[in-house]
Amino acid sequence: MSKQLNIGIVGCGKIAVFHAYAIKELGHNLTAVHNRNHSRAVEFGEAHGAQAFDDLEKMAKSGLDAAIICTTPMVHHEGAIPFLNAGIPVFIEKPFSSTLEQADMMLEASKKSGAQIGICCQRRWLPPMQRIYTAIKEGRLGKLVTCSATINGYRLDAYYEMDGGWRGRLATEGGALLPNQAPHHTDLMVSLMGPVYSVSATVANLTHPTIDGEDNIFANVRFKSGAIGSVRYSNSQKPGFYCGIEVTDENGITVVVKTDGVMFVAGASGNTGTGSMVEPPSISHWSEEENLQQINEKDAEFFRSFKDTTMQYHVFALEDFVYAIQSAKPPRIDGEAGRETVQFNTACYLSSAQGGIPIVCPIKGQPNSADFEGRKKIYRLNA
C-alpha cells in the first residue's frame, strides 16, 4: 500500500479548493497551508483541517512530503523555492512561472536539492488526449507534421476585477491570456509536437481595455522536428464557445479534439454561471476511425461517472505527481516541460514587440528588459 503523504498548499484562493479536493480524493493529508493574507490561510486551514502558517521556512519544516503552489503566477517562485531548498517536491499550478528568469530559478533550486517539480496542466488527462498519445505510441499515428491550437473564449470585466483584481495585470500575472488560459493548450501542443524551434506572433488587446495584458494571440510556430503549427488564442468571442487542438500526421491522418465546449471559467463559468465543466471533451474528427461515435460515447460515460466533473482532472494530475514522488520517477509534466510553455509565451511577446519577426528558441530570460520582454508593447486597438 502506498504511503499517505502530508501535503501543504501555498496560496488559498479558488484553485486551492481543487487541489484540496484532489488530496482528499487520493487519501492523502492536507496538513499545512499558507497565504500572504494570513487570515485567509487560517480560514482555509480550518475548513480543511490544516495548520495555517505565516512563514514558508517554518512550513517547510513541518513534516511535509510535498507542497502545492497555488499563488498568483508572478510569485510562484517565491512560494516554491523554500520547499525546493528543503528537498521537498513541489507541484505548481499552471503556468510554471510568468517569466523565464523565475522558471530557471526554480529549476536551479530543484537541481541542487534533487527535489522534483511537477506542473498541473490537467488537460493532458482528458480521455481524447490519452487516445492520441496511445495512438502515437502504438504507431497508429505517424510522425506529426502540423498542429493547430485554438481558444475561442471570453472573459467579462468582472472576471478581471474579482479576487482583488490580480488577473490580466503585468505586476501579478505577467500578462493575461498567455499565462492564464493558454498554458493548457500550449502544453498539449508541445506534448504532441515536441520542442518549439521558432515563433512569429502578434499579441494584442482588442476587447478588454481595462487590463494591462492581452486578449488575443495569433502565432505561426515551427518545431524542432520540422513540423509547423498555428496558434489562435482569443478571449474576444462572447460567449466563448470552443477550445481544441488539431494534429495531422505524415500520412494525412487528422485528429481534432474539442477540449472545451461550454467555457469553464475559474470561480464562475462563462456561459452557465455554474463554475463547472458541463460538457465532456470529445474527438470531433479522426480520419479512418470507423468507431468514433462509440469512442465518444464511452468517453462521455466515463466523464459522467466522475463525482465532480470539473475537479476530477486535478485528481488525475496530482495522482501522477504523487506516483512520481513515491517511485522516484519523473512526473509526466516536469519543470522542463513547464519551462517550454513559459518560453513559448516569452517568444510570443518578444516577436510581437518586434513586428512579428521569428524568435528562435531556446531563449533566456531578460530580467532587466525595459518593456518587460515585450509585454508592455502589445498591440492595442485604437491606441
Descriptive overview:
Strands 7, 8, 9, 10, 11, 12, 13, 14 and 15 form a 9-stranded mixed sheet that branches. The protein has a 6-stranded parallel sheet with strand order 3-2-1-4-5-6, sandwiched between helices. Helices cover 33% and strands 22% of the residues. The radius of gyration is 20 Å and the shape is globular. The protein has helices spanning 14-25, 38-48, 56-60, 76-85, 100-113, 127-138, 157-161, 183-193, 292-304, 312-327, 335-353, and strands at residues 6-10, 29-34, 51-53, 66-69, 90-93, 117-120, 144-152, 196-205, 216-223, 228-234, 242-249, 254-260, 282-286, 359-360, 379-380. It is built from 11 helices and 15 strands. α1 packs across α10 (312-327), α5 packs antiparallel against α11 (335-353) and α8 (183-193) crosses α11 (335-353). With 383 residues, it is of the alpha/beta class. It has 2 domains: 6-122 and 330-334, Rossmann fold (3-Layer(aba) Sandwich); 125-306, Dihydrodipicolinate Reductase, domain 2.
Quick summary of this structure?
The protein is 33% helix and 22% strand. By secondary structure, the protein is of the alpha/beta class. The relative contact order is 0.15.
The low-confidence runs, each spanning 5 or more residues with pLDDT under 50, are 264-274
CATH architecture of the largest domain: 2-Layer Sandwich
* Domain tally: 2
- For the record, the CATH class of the largest domain is Alpha Beta
**Main pleated sheet:** 9 strands, mixed
CATH topology of the largest domain: Dihydrodipicolinate Reductase, domain 2
Order of helices and strands: EHEHEHEHEHEHEHHEEEEEEHHHEE
The best one-word shape is globular
Based on CA atoms alone, the radius of gyration comes out at 20 Å
Mean pLDDT over the residues: 94
Give the class from helix and strand content and strand pairing. Answer: alpha/beta
How many H/I helical runs? 11
Strand element count: 15
Strand content: 15-25%
Distance between the termini: 61 Å
Helix content: 25-40%
CATH superfamily (homologous) name of the largest domain: Dihydrodipicolinate Reductase, domain 2
